[in-house]
Amino acid sequence: MSKTVSRTIRRGRARLVPRVPAELAQRLADVCASTNTTETAVVVAALRKHLDGTSDRTLLFRRLDHLDRAVERSHRQLGLLSEAFGVFVQVWFAHAPTLDEEEKKSARRDADSRYRRFLQHVTQRFSGGPRFLDDLPHESIADDAELDAIVDNSNGSPDKSRKS
Prior knowledge:
Elements: E1 9-10, E2 13-14, H1 22-35, H2 39-52, H3 56-95, H4 101-126, H5 144-153
């Protein structure tokens, strides 16, 4: 116990004599009378909640913080998936040839069977397999300027030890 705080301690309990506003003391007395509890029990419970950080407000803020982080993760994942879809569409447009009417019929039949296989694969992966987002880094590795500097300092190949 601190030297500056002097209290009478008996049977493992310290006597505190805090001064509170009269209105607060009356509210405490009213609560104690209506719930048939002692002022000591109410004050001890309130001090424990305050000191342990288990008040409703503290718990609510903790929960809101968890939810905020979950929303941030969801927002990041949606952004990644949107970007991946955009890249896929660009690549598909760049490499998909224009077909005449006879080739389109054959391509549609082939596309239907390939799409069904794709859906089966997605269903299988979604029901417990590895996820696309799990393969991506969770934080940005470098910004564009840092990546450009790395490329400028390299010999153009990903592994400098391999020289052609």
